[in-house]
Amino acid sequence: MIQLEQLSKFYGSDHDAICALNNVDLTVPKGSITGVIGVSGAGKSTLIRCVNMLERPSSGRVLVDGQDLTQLDAPALRKARHDIGMIFQHFNLLDSRTVYQNIAFPLELMGFDKNAMKERITPLLELTGLSDKKDRYPSALSGGQKQRVAIARALASRPKVLLCDEATSALDPQTTSSILELLREINQELGLTILLITHEMEVVKSICDSVALISGGELVETSKVGPFFTAPSTKLGREFLEEFLRIDPPKSLLDRLSSDGSDKPYPVIRIIFNDENVASPLISQLARSFELDISILQAKIEDIQGHTLGLMIAEFRGNAAHIEKALARLSDMQLSTEVLGYVD
Amino acid sequence: MSTDMMALIGHATLQTLYMVLISGIISGVLGLALGLALYVTRPGQILAYRPAFLVTSAVVNIGRSIPFIILMVAIVPFTRLVVGTSIGTNAAMVPLTIAAIPFVARLIEGALNEISPGLIEAAQAMGATPKQIVTKVLIPEARGGIITSITITIVTLISYSAMAGAVGGGGLGDVGIRYGYNRFEPLIMLVTVAILVIMVQGVQMLGDSMVKRANHK
């Protein structure tokens, strides 16, 4: 539905131009939810703004439903934009208009008459749960409600694609999940293709089908969400995953922990499990095979759209040689392990 | 105070109201247009066009830097062309309007700058034409700021109109100077100033209440 081909964007003049996007290729299949994740400054905002030409790419093609937007003149582009809804981090509602009038805005632009507008808007108010707030002004709404208005407004023109520019970044976690749920619902019920950008793994985890990791203006990894979370193929992917899974060890442990293994013999190890090994009785096997006492200090299991991901911090006690062997076994098993430090 | 005096002051009050109102309306409309032009042609804006922006901006700055009393006499030929005479209330209205236009334009531009760029972007993303952005986003969203600008302008015009006497325009300021100051009649000075104060208060209160109703922030 959306195809970005060799998309590049430079700011500034030739010799000291800053490259915001570098030869990006991305395909968003019809009906899917694709997330682009990256740290701030990675180019994700430029990327999504290139999809509806809010930002003109320096080179490359942007195909939305087969139409190359980079080739269109102004009137044709305006028409094409009616097929591309967009929501923003800061909602961008018109303060001078009520909820209803805000949703009517794109329809006014398209020249709808009053009755036709009402026919479109009423079901959208219901879908977004705003029926009782239709005559309120945005100033009287909460952040989550404002984003719902923005979603209804973006859907009013019945777009084929919805672009979400950090749509939940200004919202608290609870509101975020309700907005994500709404987006998921819209995706399934209306078959709407969604492209979103975010810096939060949580967003990708909860609604995306596919994910593209962007860094320094380049897509470094593109995959389905399941594999991305369980086995990211790039270093950056692993960093994102670790940040996502990060749990701070308890202070009592940190106080005992020493980075030097010479005076304290017992390692504290962080293990990340994925689908293949999360179910196996790994810890008790290790304990039995190597005569170790293993105590689990902290653990976390995440379910990512049917895939399981686990993280554990454990203390290995026993004979030094045995510990060595146990660690070797762990690395043989292709588990991601890391020695956090040593205790006595 | 004699009835003659009262009639004189009454007449002067009407002259002031007339000058301020007409020049306020005309400069409000033209200043709004010029302010919008300044805003939309600024580099990076929806109708960015650097030459037009620079010229408009320079003209506005020149207009704002000429002292009113000098402007009034400098444009006498133009005034004669527009209203057919270079003296009287109507003749005073022309320089008042000309002086107020660039003033309004800058105020309006400032009011438009308060609009979040995100709103314009959202409208563009929905396929709005530049004209639709002006009429459906810029003007409605800046409504409060526009009313504030017009209010400030009218108050300024009330004080500028005191100089209208220089071209025989009459009005309260003129009465204040000729009778209150030149003939040293403190009562008349006091009354004219009091009426001006009441006018300014009234305009400000009206403006404030309109802004309050226009803003849903």
How are the SSEs ordered, and which strands pair?
The complex is a heterodimer of chains A (344) and B (217).
Chain A: E1 2-11, E2 18-28, E3 33-37, H1 44-51, E4 59-64, E5 67-68, H2 74-81, E6 84-88, H3 99-109, H4 114-127, H5 143-155, E7 161-165, H6 173-190, E8 193-198, H7 201-207, E9 210-215, E10 218-224, H8 225-230, H9 235-245, H10 251-256, E11 266-273, H11 275-278, H12 282-289, E12 293-304, E13 307-317, H13 320-332, E14 336-343
Parallel strand pairs in A: 3-8, 3-9, 6-7, 7-8
Antiparallel strand pairs in A: 1-2, 1-4, 4-5, 9-10, 11-13, 11-14, 12-13
Helix pairs in contact in A: 3-4, 3-5, 4-5, 5-6
Chain B: H1 3-41, H2 50-65, H3 68-74, H4 76-83, H5 89-113, H6 117-125, H7 130-141, H8 143-160, H9 172-182, H10 186-214
Helix pairs in contact in B: 1-2, 1-5, 1-8, 1-9, 2-5, 4-5, 5-8, 6-7, 8-10, 9-10
Characterization of the model:
The complex is a heterodimer of chains A (344) and B (217). Chain A is built from 13 helices and 14 strands. Chain A is an alpha/beta fold and 344 residues long. Chain A folds into two domains: 2-233, P-loop containing nucleotide triphosphate hydrolases (Rossmann fold); 246-343, ACT domain (Alpha-Beta Plaits, 2-Layer Sandwich). In chain A, the strands form three sheets. In chain A, strands 6-7-8-3-9-10 form a six-stranded mixed beta sheet, with helices on both faces. Chain A has a four-stranded antiparallel beta sheet with strand order 2-1-4-5, with helices on one face. In chain A, strands 12-13-11-14 form a four-stranded antiparallel beta sheet. In chain A, helix 6 links the parallel strand 7 (161-165) and strand 8. The radius of gyration of chain A is 25 Å and the shape is elongated. Chain A starts with a strand and ends with a strand. Chain B is mainly alpha-helical and 217 residues long. Chain B has a single domain, classed as MetI-like (MetI-like fold), CATH 1.10.3720.10. Chain B is built from ten helices and no strands. Chain B has helices at 3-41, 50-65, 68-74, 76-83, 89-113, 117-125, 130-141, 143-160, 172-182, 186-214. In chain B, helix 2 (50-65) crosses helix 5, helix 5 packs antiparallel against helix 8 (143-160) and helix 8 packs antiparallel against helix 10. Chain B is elongated and about 70 Å long. The model of chain B has no long low-confidence stretch (mean pLDDT 93). The chains are: A alpha/beta (344), B mainly alpha (217).
